[in-house]
Immunity MXAN-0049 protein domain-containing protein
Amino acid sequence: MTYHIIKNNSEPNVVGVTDGAGQAHIPLGNFLERNPWYRAIFHETELAGKNWWKSWANITQYAQPLHEVFMEKKAKHTDYIGFLYRGFVVNDKLREILESSHLPKNHQFLETTFVQKHKIVDGYWWFVYDMETGDQTVDFSKSEYDLRYHKRNFGEDFKVNIQTYQNYLNVFYETGSAVGVSKLVFNQNFDEELDVFGMQFLGSKNYVSERLLKKMEAANITGYEAISPERAKRRAEFLGDIYTELVFL
């Protein structure tokens, strides 16, 4: 199975906004006061200690409907709207396509409304799913790591010997930063039939299968951008970023 990175489209003629910041935003102040669960997970990570990431990874245990999220005045009502730390927002049209696909075991569609020019925009759902940590599905001994960030911050002599999930976590806990992965090797426990999945530390945030992408293209779904592995690699090389190759055993 070939997977593509999925993200929000930033083209003004598609999304309606010109600043590249997105169609919608989680506002500070009143929204966070009405949604203390959201504030606790995404804005008060220091209070959760070193395991703050666990609520991000197991987000379906905590996520609740999102009401009255701020939407830019000129934003178009696309089928896909990406602006959240986890998952993305979809309308009924895209939800129907997703529900006919092979989704992560722990996922939810939570009612979401926006406020645009003082009016409520409804008919949307926060599609949220638990993130893959690699605990049971990644062969850490065969994966390859990019240490550029850690070498810049901890010295050129910085080295790691990552053979297991716990080894990987130990480096994260000791340095406060997840180690970049240049080759992510999945073992046979990973479900290669998944049409959507996301990684907590390893690789990009959201991936969609080529099979699902074709369904979305056939239905003229709007608002998203799909980045192929080849394009992602070229882009990373140009920007000097980490490209994560996905390998399935």
